[in-house]
Specification:
Structural class: mainly alpha
Strand content: 5-15%
Strand order of the largest sheet: 1-3-2
Oligomer: single chain
Number of helices: 3
Largest sheet: 3 strands, antiparallel
Radius of gyration: 13 Å
Helix content: 40-55%
Shape: globular
Number of strands: 3
Order of helices and strands: HEHHEE
Length: 95
């Protein structure tokens, strides 16, 4: 599996998790490469965008870090994910 395929697969998992937990579908899921390897192999800032989307859609405020926790549990079950750290206010750092 290439890195692009892994990123695409994890994006799909994040969209499915957002639908499952929050009944909302993000239009896009950004992925970033952390500046240092000890921060992970890739990072998803999706919790920030999802918090904005939920507020726009429902008017409810959600803490991005709490949203990231829901994604973490779903993504850690993926076979090729070793672990996930939640950094700062809601980055999902994937190892």
């Amino acid at each position: 599996m290439t890195i692009n395929q892994i990123q695409d697969f994890l994006r799909q998992q994040i969209v499915a998790s957002a639908q499952k937990h929050f009944d909302i579908t993000p239009e896009s899921v950004a992925v970033e490469i952390p500046p240092r390897p000890e921060l992970g192999d890739m990072a998803f800032p999706v919790a920030f965008e999802l918090a904005k989307l939920i507020k726009q859609t429902t008017g409810e405020k959600h803490n991005p870090r709490a949203l990231a926790e829901a994604f973490k549990s779903d993504l850690e079950s993926v076979e090729f994910v070793d672990h996930i750290d939640i950094a700062g206010p809601g980055y999902l750092n994937v190892f």
